[in-house]
């Protein structure tokens, strides 16, 4: 069973607690990525390292909470928005 199947069903209060627990190993991984060529090193350093403990916890919560998640490339996201009728779409 994927972890998300379980975590998407538990109460938000318990998931918030769990997300806070996971911040420590994530923070250790971020620190280790400064020294070692670990997977996702650039993402850890550029995206997650600047975040506070609280914001890291919120990122973890968001990843564990949904029952379904789709991830799009920039081109795919632009096409979805334009096909839905949006004009002058700017993506950041």
Q: What do these coordinates show?
A:
The mean pLDDT is 92. Helix 2 packs across helix 4 (53-64). The chain has 92 residues and is mainly alpha-helical. Helix content is 62%, strand content 0%.
Features:
5 helices; 92 residues; mainly alpha; globular
Report the total helices: 5
**H/E series:** HHHHH
Q: Averaged pLDDT, please?
A: 92
Class derived from helix and strand content: mainly alpha
Straight-line N-to-C gap: 34 Å
Low-confidence stretches: none
Number of strands: 0
Largest beta-sheet characterization: none
Shape: globular
Helix content estimate: 55-70%
Q: Strand fraction band?
A: under 5%
**What Rg, in angstroms, do the CA atoms define?**
16 Å
Summarize the structure.
The protein has 92 residues and is an all-alpha fold. It contains five helices and no strands.
List the helices and strands and how they pair.
Blueprint: H1 3-7, H2 12-33, H3 41-48, H4 53-64, H5 74-83
Helix pairs in contact: 2-4
């Amino acid at each position: 069973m994927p972890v998300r199947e379980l975590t998407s069903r538990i109460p938000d209060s318990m998931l918030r607690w769990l997300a806070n627990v996971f911040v420590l190993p994530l923070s250790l991984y971020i620190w280790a990525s400064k020294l070692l060529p670990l997977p996702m090193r650039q993402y850890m350093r550029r995206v997650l390292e600047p975040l506070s403990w609280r914001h890291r916890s919120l990122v973890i919560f968001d990843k564990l909470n949904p029952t379904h998640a789709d991830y799009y490339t920039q081109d795919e996201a632009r096409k979805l928005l334009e096909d839905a009728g949006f004009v002058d779409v700017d993506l950041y």
